């Protein structure tokens, strides 16, 4: 088990620390893994596409543009992610079904909750660098998240 505070103490020169914009929603407060990204705006089709794939302990980073007009992840997608071996999901946007998501063995961070689902047009991009919370989330690098926040590293630290 790791603590982001301890990782910051040990590796601060090589880490990026995300702004504290996110709340914890999944059952697992602490999660880490190699980053995979989806950049999409108010359309979670590609989020589903990624979570259908084997996660292999990765963290899916969803750049939803910070929208608070619809949810990008709900209980069905969260359960799919857990079942397919994803360690966590970081959403720059909203989730829904937060009560059920709190019982799913997955780490989820998002900026808020909203009951309205997204549209399904299949628009967006997968595994490209994305920028939000004052940091760059780069596919193949590593994310570490716990109750204190989110940190990023080019190398696996644990």
Describe the protein in words.
With 158 residues, this protein is of the alpha/beta class. It has one domain (22-153): 3-Layer(bba) Sandwich (Glucose Oxidase, domain 1), CATH 3.50.30. The chain is 18% helix and 34% strand. The chain has helices spanning 4-11, 45-51, 75-83, 98-101, and strands at 16-17, 23-24, 31-39, 59-63, 71-73, 88-95, 107-113, 125-126, 130-132, 135-137, 142-146, 149-153. The strands form 2 sheets. Strands 1, 2, 3, 4, 5, 6, 7, 8, 11 and 12 form a 10-stranded mixed beta sheet that branches. A two-stranded antiparallel ribbon has the order 9-10. Strand 5, helix 3 and strand 6 (88-95) form a beta-alpha-beta unit. The relative contact order is 0.29. The model has no long low-confidence stretch (mean pLDDT 97).
Show the helix and strand layout.
Elements: H1 4-11, E1 16-17, E2 23-24, E3 31-39, H2 45-51, E4 59-63, E5 71-73, H3 75-83, E6 88-95, H4 98-101, E7 107-113, E8 125-126, E9 130-132, E10 135-137, E11 142-146, E12 149-153
Parallel strand pairs: 3-4, 4-6, 5-6, 6-7
Antiparallel strand pairs: 1-12, 2-7, 3-8, 3-11, 9-10, 11-12
């Amino acid at each position: 088990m790791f603590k982001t505070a301890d990782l910051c103490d040990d590796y601060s020169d090589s880490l990026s620390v995300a702004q504290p914009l996110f709340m914890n929603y999944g059952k697992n407060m602490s999660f880490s893994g190699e980053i995979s990204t989806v950049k999409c705006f108010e359309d979670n089709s590609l989020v589903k596409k990624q979570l259908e794939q084997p996660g292999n302990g990765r963290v899916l980073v969803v750049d939803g543009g910070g929208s608070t007009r619809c949810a990008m992840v709900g209980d069905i997608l969260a359960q799919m992610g857990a079942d397919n071996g994803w360690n966590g999901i970081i959403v720059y946007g909203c989730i829904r079904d937060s009560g059920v998501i709190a019982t799913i063995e997955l780490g989820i961070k998002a900026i808020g909750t909203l009951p309205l689902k997204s549209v399904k047009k299949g628009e967006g991009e997968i595994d490209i660098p994305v920028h939000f919370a004052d940091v760059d989330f780069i596919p193949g690098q590593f994310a570490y998240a716990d109750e204190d926040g989110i940190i990023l590293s080019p190398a696996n630290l644990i």
